[in-house]
Amino acid sequence: MLSIFSSTMSKVLLGLAIILIAGFQYLYWFGEGGYFEHQKLNQKIQQQAELNSELKERNRILAAEVYDLKNGIEAMEEHARLDLGLIKPHETFIQMSTISTQYKPVYVNPYANDLRTNEQEPNELPPEQ
């Protein structure tokens, strides 16, 4: 077996084959369109497909809402009541507060020098009105 690689020409051919194989391996793994680039593109495609499915669902919901607004009086009435605060004639509007009973109102003195502490310089008086 060693006698095959004893000539110079066979050694050159063996070296050339090793260089070619190493070059092809480098191109396969790291070259343009290689394995790692292919994996990155597959990952981007998967992320974009997930984003597209979320956007399709959002668009479906918006299309249903547009259809309701164009074709139904109930959707327009709901929008007017909730978003615009409109009421019908002879209706009583009751608004429930969501503030807890332990809520303490904050008073800010508009004449204070430091609004964070609500303090005023001792020798300054508020302007006359």
Written description of the protein model:
The chain is mainly alpha-helical and 129 residues long. It has a domain at 33-92. 56% of the residues lie in helices and 0% in strands. The protein has helices at residues 8-30, 35-71, 73-84. The longest helix is centred in the middle third of the chain and has 37 residues, at 35-71. The radius of gyration is 38 Å and the shape is elongated. The termini are far apart. The relative contact order is 0.03.
Quick summary:
This protein has helices at 8-30, 35-71, 73-84.
Largest sheet data: none
What is the general shape?
elongated
Helix content: 55-70%
Average pLDDT number = 79
- Our Rg estimate from Cα atoms comes to 38 Å
Keywords:
129 residues, single chain, elongated, mainly alpha
Secondary structure elements and their pairing?
Layout: H1 8-30, H2 35-71, H3 73-84
Helix pairs in contact: 2-3
